[in-house]
Design a protein that fits this description.
Blueprint lengths: L1 E5 L2 E5 L5 E2 H7 L23 E7 L5 E3 L4 E2 L4 E2 L3 E4 L3 H14 L17 H9 L16 E5 L2 E3 L9 H8 L6 E4 L6 E4 L12 H5 L5 E3 L12 E6 L8 E7 L2 E7 L12 H5 L14 E4 L2 E4 L2 H18 L4 E5 L5 H14 L4 E4 L9 E3 L13 E3 L7 H11 L6 H9 L5 E5 L9 H7 L4 E6 L11 E4 L8 E4 L4 E5 L12 H8 L8 H11 L16 E2 L15
Parallel strand pairs: 1-8, 19-20, 19-23, 23-24, 24-25
Antiparallel strand pairs: 1-2, 3-7, 4-5, 4-6, 4-8, 9-10, 10-13, 11-12, 14-15, 15-16, 17-18, 17-25, 21-22, 26-27, 27-28
Helix pairs in contact: 2-3, 8-9, 8-12, 10-11
The structure holds iron/sulfur cluster (SF4) (2 copies) and FE2/S2 (inorganic) cluster.
GO molecular function: 2 iron, 2 sulfur cluster binding; 4 iron, 4 sulfur cluster binding; metal ion binding; NADH dehydrogenase (ubiquinone) activity; NADH dehydrogenase activity; quinone binding
Pfam families: Fer2_4, Fer4_Nqo3, Molybdop_Fe4S4, Molybdopterin, NADH-G_4Fe-4S_3
InterPro entries: 2Fe-2S_ferredoxin-like_sf, 2Fe-2S_ferredoxin-type, Mopterin_OxRdtase, Mopterin_OxRdtase_4Fe-4S_dom, MopterinOxRdtase_cofactor_BS, NADH_UbQ_OxRdtase_75kDa_su_CS, NADH_UbQ_OxRdtase_ferredoxin, NADH_UbQ_OxRdtase_Gsu_4Fe4S-bd
């Protein structure tokens, strides 16, 4: 085990661990400011914000410091390394660097989208001089509002850290961004006619440490200090990117990637970043319904849930083998567990099936080469499986050993008059039911639909349960490789909707308020594959489930 000294504190490094001075200082809780360095990008050491004093411990125990300050981002910490990051010399360098970076900066914080989460603001406050000695007029460069479909560039706020350029070269591989010109005239730009529109392009906005690259979607929508952040998971595909959902007054404003080495790493794709708008769709199903002969009898949850309990018990009592439920790969594992255990409690003969798992094309890996061909090593994958929790729901169904059936078979049963009751869970905002299937299923004596948007069967439902989007629910998703992560309720859904967990908690007759952690603990006791849920919480990064042999997509759980 190697030992280094950071600001007079001893730091022990694990065997084989490679840290630079910034990371080593983080370990002892000290911040070395940095702009151009990012753990997922190559090191260029160009901004000079991280300059520190560095030395080596010689065999006789003496310490020899290097005569000049060195970039901490580029300097490895090893046995005997001594780093001084809080000396007057270092502080003077930080002041000088910031003064230089701010020379031509417009200081337009009041109208800048980044204000409140800007490293130029924060570092100026913590490490800067507090005034500028520049007498001459500032060098004003024109803004470029067409860097990409979703990205705009406020050129004069740029500090030329080149994080954005390196991202398009090293991660997306698409290389749309470059540095043009030199000296105080240098700017970030695209090649003529080739905007930065790759599928990962939005990440350059997050990477930009200042307010130069901005998201057109978020621009001037909110001051960031009004936003409340909830840790969650993108529901766009089975990669299951960890995200932060930012909202104010029940309106989601943006999704940004949350770094998670167990999940996707540091980034997310634009499909997920901008694909949440359906949450606030005017089309959302609001208010539940109990219908008789097609007529709405009530829209009151206090009537709908007890009536549904009675109707389900009656149908299962009549012909349990003709009752079935279709589980959506958009359900959380807690929801799937509650519904499956409830129905199997009514009768072990009730059939359980996995609903359609949409796949689009093939897994899309990055970086790409100039011709769009994937390159190794893969740094990011947008998965073809466009559902967040196929694997988790399948694991739950495997435990309950549901009779092998499919949505199509159930539709055929319905068309042949062999279906007594069908409980359908939707949730896929891009649609999940073909009209022919809806016609067959609609012939069941009792049709229950739990969904967020209208489908070809929602009007036919005897019971319509208006659930929540992923941003309105607590629970967990299991991604393609078995990583279980919690999703968090960040907004309340429209009036009349309820988070699905709450609907199922009430339907299954549990007392009090829906508690996802309590369901997880129960699952840990009852299902070996979910033993890792024992604590009730999965932490910020989630837990890898020790589950083997979950069948691949489209395979329905067998008895
Ligand atoms: S636009 Fe932002 S990320 Fe790109 S070089 Fe300028 S400051 Fe850095
Ligand atoms: S890769 Fe998948 S999970 Fe990640 S942001 Fe994109 S759609 Fe969402
Ligand atoms: S962060 Fe080290 S030089 Fe930029």
């Amino acid at each position: 085990m190697a030992t280094a000294i950071i600001n007079n504190q001893t730091l022990e490094l694990k065997d084989g661990e490679q840290l630079n001075c910034i990371q080593a200082a983080q370990r002892i809780g000290y911040e070395i400011p940095s702009y151009c360095w990012h753990p997922a990008l190559s090191v260029v050491a160009s901004c000079r914000m991280c300059l520190v004093e560095v030395g080596d411990t010689k065999p006789d125990g003496t310490v020899v410091m290097q005569p000049k300050l060195v970039p901490g981002c580029q300097t490895p910490v090893k046995e005997g390394t001594v780093v001084i990051a809080d000396s007057e010399k270092v502080k003077a360098a930080q002041k000088a660097t910031l003064e230089y970076l701010l020379l031509n900066h417009p200081l337009d914080c009041p109208t800048c989208d980044q204000a409140g989460e800007c490293f130029l603001q924060d570092y100026s406050y913590k490490y800067g001089r507090g005034y500028s000695r520049l007498q001459e007029p500032k060098n004003i460069k024109p803004d470029k509002d067409h860097i990409g479909e979703n990205i705009t560039l406020f050129t004069d706020r740029c500090i030329m850290c080149t994080r954005c350029v390196r991202f398009t070269r090293e991660v997306s591989g698409t290389s749309e961004l470059q540095v043009v010109s030199r000296g105080s005239a240098e700017t970030i730009d695209t090649f003529p006619g080739i905007p930065c529109d790759n599928k990962l392009a939005g990440n350059v906005v997050d990477l930009c440490p200042v307010g130069a690259l901005c998201s057109k979607d978020f621009l001037y929508q909110q001051r960031v200090w009004w936003l409340k952040t909830t840790k969650s998971v993108c529901a766009g595909c089975s990669t299951g990117c960890s995200v932060d959902v930012d909202q104010n007054e029940d309106q989601v404003y943006r999704l940004t990637p949350r770094s998670n080495p167990l999940a996707q790493g540091d980034f997310m794709c634009d499909e997920g970043r901008f694909g949440w708008k359906y949450i606030h769709s005017d089309e959302r199903l609001t208010f539940p319904a109990r219908r008789k002969n097609g007529e709405i009898r009530t829209r009151d949850w206090d009537d709908v849930i007890p009536s549904l309990q009675k109707a389900l018990a009656k149908a299962v009592g009549r012909a349990p083998e003709k009752c079935a439920a279709v589980f959506s790969p958009w359900m959380t594992v807690e929801e799937a567990y509650m519904l499956a255990s409830y129905l199997r409690g009514l009768s072990p003969k009730v059939k359980l099936a996995l609903g359609p798992v949409k796949t689009v094309g093939e897994d899309d890996t990055y970086p790409k080469d100039f011709f769009g061909k994937p390159k190794e090593p893969v740094k990011f994958t947008i998965r073809a499986e466009k559902a967040p929790n196929r694997r988790g729901v399948q694991m739950v169904l495997n435990h309950f050993g549901g009779a092998a059936t499919t949505l199509s078979d159930l539709a055929a049963d319905g068309a042949a008059g062999k279906l007594e009751a069908i409980y359908l869970v939707g949730g896929d905002p891009t649609g999940w039911l073909e009209s022919q299937q809806a016609t067959g299923l609609g012939k069941a004596s009792l049709v229950i639909v739990q969904d967020i948007l209208p489908s070809t069967i929602s009007e036919r439902a005897d019971f319509l349960l208006t659930g929540g989007s992923f941003a309105e629910r607590d629970g967990s998703f299991v991604n393609y490789k078995g990583l279980a992560q919690q999703i968090g309720r960040s907004v309340r859904g429209p009036d009349g909707t309820r988070p699905d967990g709450r609907i199922l908690w009430d339907l299954t007759g549990r007392k009090g308020l829906f508690n996802a952690a309590a369901v997880r603990k129960e699952m840990a006791e009852k299902i070996p594959a979910f033993a890792a849920f024992a604590q009730g919480t999965l932490g910020d990064c989630g837990v890898l489930l020790n589950e083997h042999g979950a069948p691949e997509a489209h395979v329905v759980a067998k008895a």
